[in-house]
Design brief:
This protein has 81 residues and is mainly α. It has one domain: lambda repressor-like DNA-binding domains (434 Repressor (Amino-terminal Domain)), CATH 1.10.260.40. It contains 5 helices and no strands. Helix 2 crosses helix 4. The radius of gyration is 12 Å and the shape is globular.
Amino acid sequence: MTVNDAVAKRISTLLREKDMSQYRLEQESGIQHGSMQCIMNGRNKTVTLSTVMMLAKGFQMSLTEFLDDDIFCSEDLEIEQ
């Protein structure tokens, strides 16, 4: 699984947990709909730290809280260079 896949899965989990729509997340985070679609559909291969920070803000959580998930600790996580 790539980092982008992990971020997309984390977004999906948090959307369900917070009973939040993707549209609302886009509005709260300032991420454009097209960019969010690329993340969620796996077309984006390099999610930046800035984007992850914007996502955390959209969920009204800290960056640390967003990244505090086992999905980011998996040994199967592929880090692209």
